[in-house]
Design a protein that fits this description.
Blueprint: H1 2-6, H2 32-54, H3 78-99, H4 101-114, E1 121-124, E2 127-128, E3 131-132, H5 134-148, H6 159-173, E4 175-182, E5 192-197, E6 226-228, E7 231-233, E8 239-245, E9 259-263, E10 267-271, H7 289-311, E11 314-317, E12 361-364, H8 374-389, H9 393-397, H10 405-444, H11 453-458, H12 460-463, E13 466-469, H13 478-490, H14 496-502, H15 507-523, H16 534-537, H17 571-581
Antiparallel strand pairs: 1-13, 2-3, 4-5, 4-10, 6-7, 7-8, 8-9, 11-12
Length: about 575
Amino acid sequence: MFSKTMNLITTVTTDDVRETPALPPLPVRAPLRQIRRHAQAAEMRRRNLEASVSGGQGYQSAAVNRLNRDWLTTHLAADAAIGASWDSLTRRARDLKRNEPWANQAVERIVQNVIGDEGFRAESEVEIDGELDEEANAEIDEWYERWAEEADAEGRLHLAEIQALAMAECAEVGQCFLVSVQLGDKNRTIPLAYQLLEAEQLRMDLDWPLTNMGGAPATGLAAGNRIRRGIEMDRYNRPVAYHFWREHPYDYQAGSLDSIRMPAARVIHVFRKTRPSQTQGITWFAPILQSLRDLGQYIGDEMTAASVGAKFVVAIKRAVGMGTGLGFGTGDATDTGMDRDGNPLEELGAGIIADLAAGDEVEQIESKRPAAQAGPWIKLILETMANGIGLTYLGLTGDVTQASFSSARFARLQDKTFWRILQGLFGRTVVVPMRRAVVQQLVAFGRLRSVSPTQFAAARTRWLATRLLPHGWEEIQVQQEVEAAIRRIQAGLSTLQIESANFGRNWRRIFKQRARELAYARQLGLDLAVDYPGPVNGTMADAPVAPDLLEKDPNDPSASPGETDAGDASPDAESSQEGEEE
């Protein structure tokens, strides 16, 4: 039964695949009785479904009642939903990123934690007979770092800055494109460079079939291929080519509306796929755009109300005559001291003498803005926004005013998981393909002495082996985290490579640099007492520890000196800390 079902699926790679059989359609001239019978059967099925829901047999959330009768929904494939909303969502997302601090903060947080200040790095891991080829790896990494200085086709950005900009674009509008170009400058390391294109430069109006271009397919469209919002795909939805506008369609100097067909081999399409039917990205702010805008307006209204309230200091109640109202003068030569209705305008100044008539009263006006509940209300909105993006409130705002050590650490662990998911996406989508292209050109142009083009062609997989080294994070409590890391290594649950990678560092480079420092110190006759025994040439009891970067809250039981990643502190750790205190 299973094999028969699989043979009906059109996406398998067998050559004898056939289309899924469809139910027989009604005859073109079906009798009226037959049409009515079909309609009655459909209505009966609908009533049975509604009865099953209302009778408690189905999902109660599907029931229609007076509370959700205005909740209108429809079935849409991912690309259909994106196509109907992409233009408005993108314009609104860019507007909020330009003008709303919290939208800009969210993008900056994502870039800081996914890419970091040094960029998303990768290192060569060429092996020979199961052992790392140190010489070849060092040579490839050195040439790659040289190329990183000239990776930008426009000659403005370092590779790390290109990565940061691509990540920011992906978060803001959902996608961007890195297009490879070949530059003819002889002073370059290799001709390869990359140009970053914004999402708006993709020809979203181009579809085939059902195209808006008069029914004619694009030039070079192969049989069986289709174009979906500017992306040409084969029958398995694999990208074949991308159709871009030659110039940004919304640039103020755009003079050409011509488009070009770019082979998919030259394009790195950066986007986060959240549904199987999705072929393009959408802004990550889609669930929270309305909340972002409402928050900006609410804060603006509170500030305006507080500012206006601060301008009114006193009011004079007169028993006889008319007051001045709430008008304001212009303050220039045309100011007559009257409002537009002819009433005199009064102003307060320093050290004035008030001349009040009999029966006049002075009442002080106190502004009650911003409202006392404005802070909690704003925090609630920010928590909702953070959840909509995938972050914690602390991860989005950095607000630690009401956070304990336990809550801050828990939020940090949650955010780390989210950052690692994004790092995995960016590493596999951008870093690995880009590095492989660079290594292939280094070989083709004879830059590498450790491998010839013939040797490379015979073992491409081995020479293209790469280890991702994404941005890492400093820990809140260094002492406890380092002790936990050492114990994991000693227990065989981790390695130096894994623990170093958590900080975004390469353990081999650390060892080499440390050896150079020690050798240089001995050459100068210095004795570095900070040499850490650790698990390599000593025991945990012999290892000195660094003081915590943050002071612990004495009222927080989770911040006790004995806490580690692995759980409660062991007796050995407690005795060691008691010795330090003595």
